[in-house]
Design goal:
Layout (H helix, E strand, L loop, with lengths): L1 H4 L8 H29 L2 H22 L4 H15 L2 H5 L6 H6 L3 H11 L6 H24 L7 H18 L12 H15 L8 H13 L8 H15 L5 H17 L6 H15 L1 H29 L1
Helix pairs in contact: 2-4, 3-4, 3-7, 8-9, 8-10, 9-10, 11-12, 11-13, 12-14, 13-15, 14-15
Length: 318
């Protein structure tokens, strides 16, 4: 306050900045540079983050207690630089406790803290995004490798495994503020999309994922398939369509789906007309009317045929 008052009637902060604040900032930078080196050497990555978070809160409180409010942004920037920006790469790659380990062990609290801290600095999130992309890719490729040794007749669980992985990482990435470790940030949605595109497009033996997804839908939609409530069926179909969006060979999926839909309709094996229409509507939303026009035509033709048959039977009765 003395330094601020020395600015005189004009409320100038020149004296405060030159004779006090500049020295405060340079001393703070030296202090946290030493602290950071010491913690990075002695502590695990999660412990380091907890200490850094505590220190940042202390500095905010210090400004509130002692300094002019204009100092807060500058002081926290110095702290962010020394505690987060400079050591970031070393911390993320720390042996036995780095970002990859946190992802592997599903350490939700630590991952959330990591996002909160490193989103404070402009260059903080892309390196984490790269690690997340590599981690999801490795998990998916490991699943593909395991599945490749399984007999062709037992491939249905593979699609369910893909859905489970997708659920897990969708929850991790989140859909918006306060939801998921990464709060729906675009960097992590992009990382997840790029990762899934790598392994969802891998063939399992001689079978493409496009065919497997279509078979999975067929099993859900035919009478003899998996028995689910309407809501559960709707939810599962939505998840399948999200996986479908990662396919590069969507046309192959369309061919298989068209043949299986024809069988379900002609042999009256379809569990529900509404479910068939709902699935086609989901595909239409993602790929446009041209992609689903033949599928819609098939369902419409069957309904039309059924109506004409009923009308003819009614006519004969009369």
């Amino acid at each position: 306050e003395i330094f601020v008052d020395m600015g005189g009637a004009r409320n100038s902060l020149e004296v405060y900045v030159q004779d006090f604040e500049d020295m405060l900032l340079s001393t703070t930078a030296d202090f946290y540079s030493r602290e950071s080196s010491k913690w990075a050497e002695e502590d695990s990555f999660p412990d380091y983050m907890r200490k850094a978070e505590d220190r940042l809160q202390e500095e905010q409180q210090r400004v509130a207690n002692y300094f002019h409010s204009s100092t807060e942004e500058k002081l926290l920037k110095v702290c962010d630089e020394q505690l987060l920006q400079i050591p970031e790469q070393n911390l993320l790659e720390k042996e036995n406790s780095g970002c990859e380990i946190l992802l592997r062990d599903n350490k939700i609290d630590d991952l959330s803290r990591m996002f909160r801290l490193f989103s404070r600095i402009p260059t903080g999130l892309p390196p984490i995004g790269n690690i997340v992309r590599k981690h999801i890719t490795d998990v998916g490729l490991a699943l593909v490798k395991r599945q490749s040794s399984v007999a062709e007749a037992d491939l249905m669980p593979y699609v369910q495994d893909l859905l489970d992985i997708h659920d897990k990482y969708t929850e991790l990435v989140g859909t918006g503020p306060e939801k998921g470790c990464f709060q729906g940030h675009s960097i992590f949605h992009k990382a997840m999309k790029e990762a899934f595109e790598v392994f969802v497009n891998k063939d399992i033996g001689k079978t493409s994922t496009a065919e497997l997804l279509s078979n999975f839908c067929d099993n859900l939609l035919k009478k003899s398939g998996e028995r689910l409530s309407d809501d559960a069926l709707e939810e599962k179909l939505e998840k399948v369509v999200r996986l479908f969006c990662y396919l590069s060979d969507k046309d192959i999926f369309a061919e298989f789906y068209k043949k299986q839909l024809a069988k379900r309709l002609l042999l009256a094996r379809s569990s529900s007309d509404d479910a068939e229409r709902a699935m086609i509507a989901k595909l239409k939303l993602r790929c446009g009317a041209q992609f689903t026009s033949k599928l819609e035509g098939m369902v419409t033709d069957m309904n039309l045929s059924s109506d004409m048959q009923n009308a003819f039977s009614e006519h004969l009765r009369e």
